Amino acid sequence: MRKTLLFLTMLTCNRLNAGIFSQPEGMNFRDMVRVDDVRLLIDECWVDADGVRHVRQEIFSELHNLIQRADQFLVLDMFLINNFGYQPGEGYYPLSDEFTQWLVEKRRVRPDVEIILITDPINTVYGSVRSPHFEALRRAGVTVVLTDLNKLPDSNPLYSIPWRLSFGLLGVAPGSLLPNPLGEGRVSVRSFLKLLNMKANHRKTALSEKELMMMSANPHSGSSAHWNSALHVRGGGMAMLYESERAVLRFSGMCNTPDFDFNEQVGARFKVEILTEGRIRERVVELLDTLECGGRVDLSLFYFSDVDIFAALLRAHRRGCFVRILLDPNKDAFGHAKNGIPNRQTAASLHESGIPVRWANTTGEQFHVKMLYVESLSGAATLLTGSANFTRRNVGNYNAESALAVTGPVDSEPMSRERRVFQRWWNNENERCYSCDYQQYADENPLRRLQAWLQEISGLGSF
Predict the structure, then answer these.
(1) What does the pLDDT look like over 25-37, one tens digit per residue?
(2) Helix 307-319 crosses helix 278-289 at what angle (to 10 degrees)?
(3) What whole-number distance in Å separates Cα of residue 310 and Cα of residue 305?
(4) What's the CATH number for 26-251?
């Protein structure tokens, strides 16, 4: 009996330590190189003067080009690759099918190019449904690695602690007792219970020996009409991005990760930083706290609820920095209505503090952009984008997240393009409606504010 109790105690401690108290080695990454070639890519939507909706996209055509140009290897880390929630319509297309076909065709034409795809088990609803995309990729010789989410810290401990010590011990398996909460079909009880942990490998990265991309965009059919942002870098940064991805490969079971040769070139024009998990929040707060009076901040976000970044924005505003914030109204999610949490509550606090806020004028799609631009009076600016929303789960060392921060001259192309893009979104230029006033979706209800705050600090929310 004593040995049994000792074994159960050790098992409990190991399971809790693996999730709640620790982060896998190699996460929370930050490193820097200098390069000369950086481009900003934008997917956007607008409504014209006649009320017709338009979609203009750049990101996935450039990702396709990156895949085609690879001569030695490709490493991709993509959160969503499925057709859940997909309905054909204006601007929507089977993007997951196309993305899968790009990689299958690459293997057919160039079987010597090694391809590793890291992804999240949400695409199989945690083992309950088959993924035709992953099956096709594996048949073609692509190495598909499902992230071991049990190794990530628990952002939702009120649920995750009892789950780890009960149903979590049973693992996951196919089943059909419950309807699939993400799409068609049915799932097992164990898979559904695992979903409630609300954790993810949320990254969206791609790299070859020549270049890299850091995106807010998923190759997900149901997200194919969303607004998004991406940075494309050539000539440097690939080695350090691969090093950050190796951490996920290792804790997900690929102990012997391959070594690759990179065609890196020393540049001078831009400083490029790879940031993951909590290092993203650290860098954002650092940028805001060191910006002098008269500096400029443009922030475009899908979700915003992190208290540390909110406080840093408020400090910058009070110092006399020029701050503008454009948010998704949090009203649509793949055909389902949302209640505006957390953005409308964050926006109410920003508005009360005197910080200008506008809403993206979404019409079914999502303003899925994660982009921060900080411009100093010294003539330098920093542009940051990637997978991370500014929420506790995304930048508090819980989800696997990644971002790229580029610092360079304010007159360089990525910086001047950000200013042009944000300006037309903010001002609705050329009789195109990109955004609307704060009052359009204002929600200052105290009970919903309390709900948003409790969900943020406890991890019980989905954001």
Answers:
(1) 999 999 999 999 9
(2) 10
(3) 7
(4) 3.30.870.10
